[in-house]
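SAMPLE LOG
Freezer: B-3
Tube label: C17
Construct: single chain, 347 aa
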Amino acid sequence: MLPTYLFYADSGNDKSFLYRTYFQIFLYAVIFYANYLWLTPLLFFRNRKILYFITALALIAAATFVNDKVFARSNKGPMPNRMENEMHTRIQPPPGIPFAPRDFQTDERKRPAKNWPMYNFILTTLFLSGFGMGLSFSDKLRKHEKERKEAEKEMLNTELAFLKNQINPHFFFNTLNNIYSLVQTDVADGQKAILQLSKLMRYLLYETEKGDKLLSEEIEFMHTYIELMKLRISEKVSIAITFPENYTNISIPPLLFLPFIENAFKHGISYRSTSFINVILSVLPGSIIFECSNSLVAGNDNLLRQDSGIGLENVKKRLALLFPGRHELKITENETTFLVFLQINIS
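STRUCTURE (predicted):
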């Protein structure tokens, strides 16, 4: 609109040219927003494509008819010939070069076709219709992407709730029985175990609902869990835990490593033969490395095909949603050992 007004102000033309141009811009806006806000969402996206094209073409035809009628009321086109002559007569050649003014009224070879304004209007409206449809498609894609991310977030919350519910109920039952026996023999240790169980349950029920947790809180939780699990295992089980003492206290999703530890205690220990569980957590600049290995007990060989804990497949999905392209998970086993290696890039 602004270039048209400046051109009008500089040429000194009458206002009818300005009004007609602005009227065309109004028609362009009607066609664009009709496609963008109405036709594409209500017809094209609802598989009524034939009706969409019929309606869009009918709208263009109606706008062309109205535009043509408006121009027909005046003998001047969007670029009056008088204005062309005025513009060219103002152009003076350099000294020494002859100048012959051209008669634009009689130069038929250079004059635009009689119906050119209408063709130009139709082409412009077709372009605007396509642009309106494309912009509507772009909005739909953004909306679907937003819905997808919300669904993924909801899935994460659901899996987290599922994870908390899947912590072996027998763990709490056996732990309470062990605490009961411990209280009878050593009151101080029994009270300490009750306090640890209370912290564990509070963390599971309340703290994990608040989003990401500090790495120190996760380490404390894993330590408490392991200490309580030790109450119900025999001396034949060797447990080695290595947690870092000095590290940057970053925020991570809650209960990220627990499934692997819970899986090791559930399937990697034996009450009749020697077995082991090793857990190592390392915090490096820009990454966290978690390793958990346990012995393979007779009857529990090939843990990869078992529904252990919340299921290793569910853990993989959760990591893929939380750290897409920023983690490496390797789960292997041989004749004697089941090994989990997880590296998460946090930078």
